[in-house]
Write a structure and sequence with these properties.
With 372 residues, the protein is of the alpha/beta class. The chain has 2 domains: 182 residues, Glycogen Phosphorylase B (Rossmann fold), CATH 3.40.50; 169 residues, Rossmann fold. Strands 3-2-1-4-5-6-7 form a 7-stranded parallel sheet, sandwiched between helices. A 6-stranded parallel sheet has the order 10-9-8-11-12-13, with helices on both faces. Strand 11, helix 12 and strand 12 form a beta-alpha-beta unit. Helix 9 crosses helix 14 and helix 12 packs across helix 15.
Length: 372
């Protein structure tokens, strides 16, 4: 075991309802706790009593200002000095480092969509990321990209920093696994799909996830095969005004589309275990954690040809061209037909390569070097 020391993390992904980066950070902290004697300082911009973390054996403390602050103001003022006083290193989990940080820092870059797809982000997101990302790259002692696809996008943005970044992929939590014997999926079908078979896309409902294309493809599928599965879009509402309402209005069988909102971890697993197919229609991803989780559940997967998704899936998914609703409908037909058994077996084989052991070992090595 390594000697005790404290590492600070930008813990903003752990506030509120967790999305992909939040689940990744929680998993990383648990893996580091299991492999080292390090302690963790979880830095957040507002007072909070509990971040709902387990598996850390009381080795984490929350570092917050006495009054709530906007995230950008917090990063500019209090975050850096406070974290530097309480830790020996800092991990920027959201691609941005605080100013006036005086300890070595690792910067995790999950995606560059605020720059590559600014139309898919709020003005506040674009401003914060664009204003401080370049400065954070310069200040970071270590750069980590979630996928080779993200590193290539970083290289295109800044060749010098892209060349020094290393890839440490995300990982599926062991919580995601195939259904146990005897679990039929009837309960989740009744709860979220009107009792019918379903295909699912899991993740925040925002434009870059390709949801309008998925709705068009599902409409084509039902027109061709009326008995085809329903569609479940499970995830919290993102930004973007009426785009989703307009896309649903264009669907001729909108009653066959179900929007349960943000779902619990248990419900997400049930959806992935018992879907006829799991779809990721994204236009751009940094990694695609729901895909890794779907593979771990043995789900037949259909993905766009987005580079990060291809990297995660390997040869274990049906692929369609981004933005091609007809191609997606055809991929669903193939998956729902004779490909399902083969894809389930391929998913489980691929999932064994996406477990936490490799990424956790890489993070321990990186942080050990950073502390030295």
């Amino acid at each position: 075991m390594l000697s005790p020391t404290s590492i600070a993390f930008d813990a903003r992904p752990l506030l509120g309802s967790w999305t992909g980066v939040g689940w990744w950070l929680a998993g990383l902290l648990r893996e580091l706790a299991a492999r080292t004697e390090w302690r963790f300082v979880l830095a957040v911009p507002r007072p909070v009593g509990n971040l709902q973390l387990d598996g850390l054996d009381g080795r984490a403390v929350i570092l917050a200002p006495p009054v709530p602050l906007p995230g950008t103001l917090w990063l500019q003022t209090l975050a850096g000095p406070a974290a530097s006083m309480r830790s020996s290193a800092y991990v920027g989990s959201l691609g941005i480092l605080p100013r006036r940080l005086t300890v070595p820092a690792a910067l995790a870059v999950h995606d560059l969509t605020p720059i590559s797809r600014p139309q898919h982000h709020t003005l506040a997101n674009r401003f914060c990321f664009s204003a401080y990302f370049g400065e954070s790259l310069e200040c970071a002692d270590e750069l980590v990209c979630a996928s080779s696809a993200t590193r290539e996008r970083l290289r295109a943005f800044d060749a010098r920093h892209g060349a020094r970044a290393q890839v440490i992929p995300l990982a599926a939590d062991p919580f995601f696994s195939p259904p146990p014997a005897g679990e039929t999926g009837d309960a989740v079908r009744r709860q979220l799909a009107g009792g019918r078979p379903f295909v699912v896309q899991l993740g925040t409902l925002e434009p870059r996830k390709g949801i309008p294309v998925l709705l068009q493809a599902h409409a084509r599928l039902l027109t061709a095969v009326p008995s085809a599965p329903d569609l479940v879009l499970a995830g919290g509402g993102g930004w973007g005004g009426r785009w989703l309402a307009r896309a649903l209005e264009a669907h001729p069988h909108a009653e066959r589309v179900h929007l349960p909102g943000y779902v619990s971890r248990e419900t997400a697993r049930a959806l992935l275990r018992h879907a006829e197919a799991v779809v990721l229609a994204s236009e751009e991803e940094g990694f695609g954690l729901p895909l890794a989780e779907a593979l771990a559940c043995g789900a037949p997967c259909v993905i766009s040809d987005e580079a990060a998704l291809l990297e995660v899936a390997g040869e274990c998914a049906q692929v369609f061209r981004r933005g091609d609703a007809s191609g997606l409908a055809e991929a669903l037909v193939r998956t729902l037909g004779g490909e399902r058994t083969r894809l389930r077996e391929a998913s489980l084989a691929r999932a064994r390569q996406l477990a936490w052991d490799g990424p956790a070992t890489a993070w321990v090595s990186l942080l050990t070097a950073l502390l030295a």
